[in-house]
Amino acid sequence: MLIEFTGIVGSGKSSLAEKLKEFSESEREEILSSSEAAERVAGRTASGIIIKTLLPIKTLQRKALRRVFAVTTAPWARGAFKNSHAVLIRHVLETSPARRVLPNLHWKIIYKLFLEAGGRTELFMNRLKTGESAVMDEGLVHRAINLYAWETETLDEPSVRAYFRALPGVGPVIIAQCDLETALQRARQRGLPQRLRDKDESVVMRFMENSTRIVEIAAEDLVTRRQVYIIDNSGSISDSQARLKETAAVIWGKPVEAQLELQAVDAALIQK
Questions:
Q1: pLDDT tens digits for range 110-136
Q2: Domain coordinates of the chain in residue numbers?
Q3: pTM here?
Q4: Considering the domain 2-37+85-271, what is its CATH architecture?
Q5: Which candidate, 51, 209, 57, 34, places its Cα nearest to that of 124?
Q6: How far is Cα 117 from Cα 42, in angstroms, rounded to an integer?
């Protein structure tokens, strides 16, 4: 299973993604971070099997497996993703404002991250075994923010919706919801993303507002094809973690211990 997180800068999606791993209490399910899943997949290749045989020391083994993934497995996966999702690739190249308004080097980085997310999605869905789940906080759903939120006065909502509809319909999506003021405060405390640090306040606010709308569109459009859950991460850590634990219980069919209400998004809720 592949579980994706998304949310605006400062929403706490990465913290929630890391915390989710603690809520795998079932012996039947192992939750892996994106890097751990990459190592697991690399370890099942011919090179990986040799490495695990010759390097019994785990730290050296993991370092070598990461290298195998970066040099051989990941490039192959990116190519497979491009071949199997040509419509999505073409849509991104034709509609992403990042390609038009950002410096070429910046655009190349964003496009490479998009392809890497696609390659990992292909690998994790096809190469992980039953009982293994990968958690991605920088997956294809979240890539929409980098592709479409940059420096545009008016968000191109039809293109964003078409992007989400072209994504492979795999696995649950967990949205870290946070009000804009709180998210900005958190982002400034830890440091804004590098590409926003030299921008004036109006550009930062436009990016954050566009990001917020993109996350809303993700909830609206993905709900017809995937499980979508919203976790309010604006308040206390304990409340957010309790909601996350409930979400994990629903996803893996475990008994629910926390009593806070879980909002599994459905079409009726989206319309409210």
A1: 999 999 999 999 999 989 998 889 999
A2: 2-37+85-271
A3: 0.85
A4: 3-Layer(aba) Sandwich (3.40)
A5: 34
A6: 16
